[in-house]
Amino acid sequence: MKLKNATTYTLQVKGNISSSTIRRLKASESVSTNTLDALCAILNCCIDDVIAYLPDQPNSITE
């Protein structure tokens, strides 16, 4: 957001993202794929610029 000079106000107005969703983003809580799509559109970026997968625990399926 800093690189794009975007604020949370920008997300709310341009992306129609609610304040509760912004709170969830700041708290690293789950958000919908629609929200991720809106973020990418607003910031003109790719999904991997916005998210990263960090597993909670090791994958027990491959062990």
Q: Can you give a write-up of this model?
A:
The protein is mostly helical. The protein has a domain of 41 residues. The protein is 41% helix and 0% strand. The chain is built from 3 helices and no strands.
The low-confidence runs, each spanning 5 or more residues with pLDDT under 50, are: none
The number of strands is: 0
The ordered string of helix (H) and strand (E) elements is HHH
Helical segment tally? 3
What is the percentage of strand-forming residues?
Answer: under 5%
| Rg, alpha carbons | 14 Å
In short:
This protein has 3 helices and no strands. It has helices at residues 8-14, 19-26, 33-43.
Features:
mainly alpha, globular
Give a topology summary:
Layout: H1 8-14, H2 19-26, H3 33-43
